[in-house]
């Protein structure tokens, strides 16, 4: 192995900018000392001088001068006649220092040394990547889509590190091509097969939080605090915000003039519908705000069971529940309460117009069908009859024939 071969190996170290000089020197010396131990049985009488910037490495061996014929260990001792060939001034008992040439190790040993050195470099690089990204959890990174597989996407960051975004961490409507740039948040760093595995996500609530920090200076500066975020990626999200400065409207600041600030976030999240809500310690008011865009009449809640009953006008019930029950589900997650919605009696009912709870029809209508109607806020006969068969078909998972049969049963009740 020539001096030039060593320079190539050292150059690999110089590319690892985040590895400090002391560590680099220590690893290089350690690898060479292992070679000396293997070849000579000890490394204690060797001095290793390394200059990684130039690729220079020198090994000097120290041996005691003994009388001719008294050499017991050629590695630790040198005869007087041999010492005088190096310098005529050497005397018995003195120490001779001579340079060990790389070629003295033999080709096989040098090849092994190079392999060990490359392996140690790779280990250092892996440890370095792991430590860097361990400290970047929760941070947004920008990378280039390098490879797309069925269950995950391989992304390369600016420094050439590999990041993985599993299908479960992608927004359902995400569609990327190779070479495109994407933004995501680092959610965890694992070790798999002795290599760092960096997982990034676009579905994590933390990703949405970081996007708000980027778009809203007041959040970044700490004037507005995000109290909680819940989301169904690509569909809907609810963000509770609070300001410690009375002069700042937290919701207005997050939305921006004519929605200028929030539009960028919505586009990044594939048109995810984002509700920004003013946080309050008033539980009833917070639950009411969380059910936006529905207008709530009153709220009754139990702090022990964390259940809440919300009363609304009939036309507001479907808004409170939302498509597929999404709005009420997110409102419950945001507030920490299990929310049930109830129709407030309208004037006609108060004046005496009869209505019948759907549960009263258990003998004619299957329980699971009644539950489907209750899911969309229709818990009485008249609340079902107020909607057309086509509207009920859209909002529930029921067949049109089943709906028409139920409507006939309910109509006959009031005839």
UniProtKB/TrEMBL annotation:
Keyword line: Cytoplasm, RNA-binding, Transcription, Transcription antitermination, Transcription regulation, Transcription termination
Assembly and oligomerization: Monomer. Binds directly to the core enzyme of the DNA-dependent RNA polymerase and to nascent RNA.
Similarity-based family: Belongs to the NusA family.
Entry-linked CDD domains: KH-II_NusA_rpt1 (cd02134), KH-II_NusA_rpt2 (cd22529), S1_NusA (cd04455)
Organism: Ancylomarina salipaludis
Biological process terms in GO annotation: DNA-templated transcription termination; transcription antitermination
Name of protein: Transcription termination/antitermination protein NusA
Iron among keywords: no
Function field: Participates in both transcription termination and antitermination.
Domain S1 motif: 138-203
Subcellular location(s) per record: Cytoplasm
